[in-house]
């Protein structure tokens, strides 16, 4: 039976910095997550639209529908992740369950038969997103619960973001190598190599994380009626700010990602250097994460995220200046654009952990999984709209995937790639600047939650021994 002293010691231990080994083991599953997520936006849509012949509008609509499927599955699986525990804890068994679903669907999506139909793509994308949702929501919620400390949460999410970017970097080295080999079917070989990377790394990463990283005890969530939950979400301004910024960020990122190969190979004529541009972009992102962490600690997470969005709005237009066939100029611009690429994703997730604490103070409910499911939904919906919008725009300007295009069409492709992302990034900065939870507010929220934990433990002792708890005898409520 827990006691107040034990609870106090647990609170003290939870506030200690996590070891580097714990951070490494926890963050590792993020590498195969991103290694699969990057091709889903950058490589698979052009592959199915051009190489397999399904067409731009059809593929854009299918990927949009698959992402909207997550609007339903994300909250449902998030609530399941919050409520159902096993002897492993609340999160790890869901991560293990996601692995076989992911392995099967990744194989079917990344290694499709020669003759593929729209129905085939729809079915296996829907299955893939179920497994991906189980994995990502449980992993992000687990990360939010590893520590209650304001800055330590940035460190946890920063480690996860490093793993995400390294996963992208490693998976991008495969098409870079394959492009230099000049295979008969470059697009098919490129996609298949990335699929095998995920199939090999995912089970290893999950096994290490589940084996080596314990779950921190958290309060058992209480069932909240649907209407009450919706009311709380509608009334939570911090949640609205984070979700709105993440939604728009998903649209902006999805627009440039889904059109990247068309821009690099057709408009910029980079040929076999196309994947190298992405590699430089993500390596730059990894190198600047320590600086972003320093700035976030110095000026606050939400202001750092806002400044990052402004930086993005200022650097993306430089792509208009890159001459055709100039790989050095292109690599320089993409490396500059990559300086802040990690800021938004990991800072949004760190901010959401603070939002979940704020919600727990206000509602007395533990809904971390639900909140992270909403966060994954907004980014996916943003990306879904982006792919459909991007491919519809490409179709409207007369762009032919895998065919010949006039210079006027290629110039229009550059404009479609740059200006929407620039405008949306500026809007994200404006939204984030007025986020209401700073470090002082978060510290106070944690004090209230930890005091409630002490009072709960004291009340449990009182019920067992028949003695009044300190809180009962003093008649003082901590909050």
Summarize the model shown:
This protein is mainly α and 479 residues long.
Characterise the protein shown here.
It contains 20 helices and no strands. The longest helix has 32 residues, at 150-181. It has helices at residues 4-14, 20-27, 30-42, 44-51, 56-83, 92-110, 118-145, 150-181, 186-212, 226-235, 237-267, 274-287, 289-299, 301-315, 327-337, 343-363, 368-396, 407-432, 439-465, 470-474. Mean pLDDT is 85; it is low at 1-13 and 471-479. It has 479 residues and is mainly alpha-helical. The chain has one domain (18-217, 235-460): Up-down Bundle (Growth Hormone, Chain: A). Helix 3 packs antiparallel against helix 9.
Highlighted features:
single chain; 479 residues; mainly alpha; Growth Hormone, Chain: A; 0% strand; disordered C terminus
Q: What is the element layout, followed by pairings?
A:
Blueprint: H1 4-14, H2 20-27, H3 30-42, H4 44-51, H5 56-83, H6 92-110, H7 118-145, H8 150-181, H9 186-212, H10 226-235, H11 237-267, H12 274-287, H13 289-299, H14 301-315, H15 327-337, H16 343-363, H17 368-396, H18 407-432, H19 439-465, H20 470-474
**Fraction of residues in H or I helices:** over 70%
The domain tally reads 1
Q: Hey, roughly how much beta strand do the residues contain?
A: under 5%
What is the CA–CA distance across the termini? 25 Å
Class from helix and strand fractions: mainly alpha
CATH class: Mainly Alpha
